[in-house]
Amino acid sequence: xxxSDFSKxxxxxxxxxxxxxxxxxxxxxxxxxxxxxxxxxCLKRQDDTVRGHAESIGDRLMRDLDALMVMPPTQYDACExxxxxxxxxxxxxxxxxxxxxxxxxxxxxxxxRAYVHDVVIGCGTAVIAxxxxxxxxxxxxxxxxxxxxxxxxxxxxxxxxxxxxxWDLPDEFATLHRLLDARMGKNGKREYVQILRLxxxxxxxxxxxxxxxxLSLGAIGYDAVKHLVLCRIEKRPPRLDLDIYPYLxxxxxxxxxxxxxxxxxxxxxx
Length: 270
Description:
Blueprint: H1 14-21, H2 31-45, H3 57-65, E1 80-85, E2 91-94, E3 97-100, E4 109-114, E5 118-123, E6 126-132, E7 140-141, H4 148-153, H5 171-184, H6 186-197, H7 204-217, H8 222-234
Parallel strand pairs: 3-7
Antiparallel strand pairs: 1-4, 2-3, 4-5, 5-6
Helix pairs in contact: 5-6, 5-7, 7-8
């Protein structure tokens, strides 16, 4: 059973388990819930005594464990391992589905480890990609972060990039994208991609908060957002040079007129 805790020994015949636990087929929201329910039923079964035996199933199991080999020092890696090569568009095929890897690994030899729920792709000793496994046919599974270095060089493809399609980012990112595009054109697109690349190193919550703060200050740009992200992480006040951001509203300070304070005096008619 995938995901089960084997620190508690249990044993059950597959045929018995299928007939008694899986007929009719139970319904659960996830494999984790199904596995927990099956484990509970198996452990409860250990209290039963099979016909022809004087001991319970659990007692017999504990006695048999003394004669079994010791458990291996590392947990068994329950996955299918396949060696292959990434394509020119940074995709790796496994069972008729394609999974993305960072563009730096195009044409590289990689190893796919396919688990029940995940597909993990490695190159050498490094894990370079991790995806939720798809059981569709001819499916394309992208991680948008894998393609940002390429889009930074080819910003003209930003709005039509398939790997970014359907990327569910907070609303602040769309507002920032629109403002940068309108104010700076092509350079604004590049700055937006650079801001997205902050997600490679920082949590999305920190980047989102920094983008929101930059929008409120009117100091939109990669340098400002990165500075605000670092300030949030290091818990220090930001020190932005607001003179370099031309879209900030100008503060108009007039000379104080003493007559203006007459309205504060009682009995004064305005």
